[in-house]
Fold these 2 entries.
Entry 1:
Amino acid sequence: MAVRVSIFHQTKYEYDRPVFLSPHLFRLKPAAHSRTPIEAYSLIIKPDTHIIHWQQDPFGNFVARVDFQEPMREMLIEVEIIAHMVPLNPFDFFLDAYAEYFPFTYEAQLKKDLGPYLEVSLPGPQMEQLLQRLDQSKRGTVDFLIMLNQLIYQNISYTVRLQPGVQTSEESLMQALGSCRDSAWLLVQIMRHLGLAARFVSGYSVQLIAENLLPTRSFGLEQDVVALHAWAEVFIPGAGWIGLDATSGLLAGEGHIPLACTANPDSAAPITGTTGISETSFTYINKVKRI
């Protein structure tokens, strides 16, 4: 059963004095390759004294560049999306014959094309130990990916972390704790160390309560919820990019709406830009409603 939903996301920055803002980049528009159909979208930024230019980054993500024309005491960003939540089978794909079993090697041209998604960070002791412990004997590629996703889900406890940026893989492994973006980046790095092209994804996670029979993995939720989220994608020949959500241990489904898919988390931040010196308060609202 398909359901249409309205997503509302508001972010407000309040400053203790008038400040000038540098040009800001907003990555808050669903990516063109979103598997969940997007029927309508709007972005409102206040104050109105700004110029907005839409562009695409090197990865094909939609980016709004906003140039502000005067100082301000408050910046308000509102996103509204109408999405058609059609049930998706996350296993609805085929693999090329040579990629059906892990380990495999990408064909030469494909490996060259995937270069940015194969770059690895220098592994620390924790990462080296994890890679040494992994059973890398030949097995079905899909089974291997599920095992990796479950490995992070079972060993990295989830926490809400408001500090900007992403922890290193070593920090996440040492603390056994991380936000969704920390777990996603850890999974990306593990897959790259194993020779699998992987990228970081920032987007919305929509979870609907089970009464509508959608396979949205509601985990006992008492109401429908939406939040900014992060997960990983891995490129497997024949299937293309496959989404892996290490926070839930599941494959990405219709509730995962990508905003930015990049080789590095720094390039996927929903909002980037600098502000004049001030004390800043930050509030946000996320709502989802069935329509």
Entry 2:
Amino acid sequence: MSLIVHHLNHSRSQRLLWLLEELELPYEIRFYQRNKATMLAPPELKAVHPLGKSPVLEDGPLKLVETGAICEYLVEKTGRLGPTDPDEGLRHYRQFLHYAEGSVMPTLLLMLAMSKVPLIGGIAVKKVQPMVDVHLDYVEQVLASRPWFAGHALTAADIMMSFPLEAAVSRAGLGTSRPATMAWLQKIHARPAYQAALQKGGDYAYA
């Protein structure tokens, strides 16, 4: 039985399609479109899961939300794209698997929310930018020291980190002043599995 991915356009669920392509697992996509005025997920997703968010992964009777948890489940299921060294797994892989949503994305979302506040939005964004820069500088330091987030091979940690760093290019000034991070983005975008996921997933504003 194929896995089912409930996928929202222009969203973090693009990472799950990439992961599945890297793992070479068969899957079916069920597509959902954002409301063009509000950019919110459609109410139909609440029929899939009470949170009404994407991605949702179905594997037979099992239904999972939260991209990090889904990544962990698929890595354990296949034995692939996890850490190749136990020490790296503790120090790097697990950290960055959760750092993406636990630290980087909340700061980026705060910047996005502040940018939409009338009159004072620009001022608020300038105050948030140094908070974002702390994370971007840290990421640059890491990627200048090793080719992938967990060490010397692509893992699910890289897949988790892709969305916040792609979003940072368009929302938070990530650019050529951080060459190691930009080179990493170019490297993941060139992967055949990433390209296949992009072709299958539809509209995605951050690649």
